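USER:
Working in pairs, take the chain set out below, taking as long as you need, and write a paragraph about the fold.
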Amino acid sequence: DGDTFECNYDKLLIATGASPIIPDLPGIENEGVLPLKILEDGRILKAYLAEHNVKKAVIIGMGYIALEMADSLRTRDVEVTMVKPRSRLLPWLNEKLSNVVWKELEDNGVELYSGHTINSISKTNNTLTVHCDDRDFHCQLVLPAIGVKPNSELAKEAGLDTSIHNAISVDRFTNTGDPDIYSAGDCADAYHVVTGKKTWVPLAVQANRAGRAVADNLFGEGLKLQGIASSAMFRVFGLEVARTGLNPHEAGEHGFDPVEITIESRSRAHAHPGSTTMHVAMVGDRQTGLLLGAQMVGREGVAHRIHAVAVALHAGMTVADFWQCDLAYAPPFSPVWDPLLTAANQLSKKVQ
């Protein structure tokens, strides 16, 4: 209710989560500019769509949430325009794979405008206008979807350390440095299994696992977290998109000598009905042969295949080791050479 109160504790867990980044734009407070992060935001958005007969929406950003919302809005026959200042769609994704996603969006009626600086948002009667340097976009709904930030203010006020992206710094036992204070969820950082260094990836699996670790450690179980591989996946229209590990740029920043290959393969045996194209980008370290990461785009079989690479990263496998993995084969599910094995075979020729 807004009152200040004090509460004594023996042990404390800070699990304050993350909040959507709201761009600092004139007019961002206008009715019809709706962020999306929690379930209640979704309920508000659905109600607004129903009450205001929304025909056109502008999404600011082109990340996970932005793409999923473009899909959902098009399902409701809402015209969608996506705009962002940076030039690349999904800049962490291999460019060839990113172009496949771009085409899928356009084929489903989404208008894409990258490289456009957004200056302000205005509202006249029931029309919102997103003003850019070179053009305006008119709509009835604006959805800012440019990412999230950790809610670490409470921790910082308590004198606790923060690290990458201002996430609360924790050790592998989820302790903050104060022996009586733990942190878990989207507000806390983690260790990357490939680099061994701190990272911040606010996704559900790590949040849940860290919460369980806090509970175990509070009761003296001593659960140590290995870390994360930055694994993520989502669907946009008919495409599955997945990643795990490092891309070449990230690998270079962490001192690796990255080499990347991209291949096209099939989701099933070539002659099997329903076989579709699958795109794979795989990254290894030229000097050590270590497998560093992979990305995949396709219409089926992508989401669960990426798990194999994530496990290989946790195991510290080389590209050559991964190529020898005994992945299952049957014509309805894969070619004889699974796309991941084909990619590993090609990559093994370019690393030690």
In short: Residues 204-218 form the longest helix (15 residues). The radius of gyration is 22 Å.
